[in-house]
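Pasting as-is:
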Amino acid sequence: MKRYLILTTVAAMVLLLAWPAFGQQTGRQGGGTNQILSPEERAELREKWPTMSQEEREQFRTKMRQRIGSGRPPTAPTMPSGPSPRMFEGQIERLKQKHQETINELNAIRELAVKEKATQTAARLEKLVNKHQKEYEDTLQTMEQRRERFETMRRERPGRRPGAEERQAGKPAPPFTLKSFDGKTINLSDYRGKTVVLEWLNFECPFVNYHYDKPKTMVKLANKYKNKNVVWLAVNSTSNTTPEANKDFAEKQKLPYPILDDRSGKVGRAYGAKTTPHMFIINPRGRIVYDGAIDNAPMGKAKDGVINYVDKALAEQTTRKAVSTTKTKPYGCSVKYP
């Protein structure tokens, strides 16, 4: 028993030592400014500096000179260099790496406890792992939201001319972490830098079955673009579906992509998924560039020929063109939320 208590203590220490590093805000900062600004003031300055006018910046410099009691202007740079996309990417990458190291360590100790039949210790470690996972996901979401606010601020900065992709890009894609029905953890942020297709799926819906049983629309498209930096994810928000049924469907259809378990409906509601199928395309910068139907032909019927909106949007996205059709009305069965 003493050994098991020690193991639990070690696990707790690993968690307590690792976690403070997750929320650290790092970045290069001017040495003199660091010494005369509090951490809160530096954080506020990093956020405000890109949108400050020249007059406001000069007022800040004057204030700093008064603080240090010197009549000479501070040497450049006079203020923290501020956040940058690379800084946010680095923070998020360090968060993920540290989280994985901690989880691996905790799981190794838990497995040892299970092997030695220390059931109480194993159960406590399992709760610790779950708690750590939840805190990690909350921290990750906060960091991604900060990154998105920063990018929005940069795009809206007076005098800056946005590129073609930024002018047409839609709203930010809500971050999420879901388990697939085959047991893997899928985090949207892991695919930053890739184009992501989200397909809302319910294999009991005839509109969905049509695309899987006849033209094989989804599987063919996923395979067509898999070597073009495109990730395809199916999401099942049907409240009464079962893991076994999803596994059987994936095996029968030989799906080259996972089905994510959203039986709680949390992710579906965050995206506003209304029907099955309902398609979303997320560009490499994490913004939704298409939201709507797979095509204009429910059950294969179209008056003026079939237009596959998703295929068209992916063709444009993967050749760095602006997506010409960004929104259509989805069709199919309503999503069976709880």
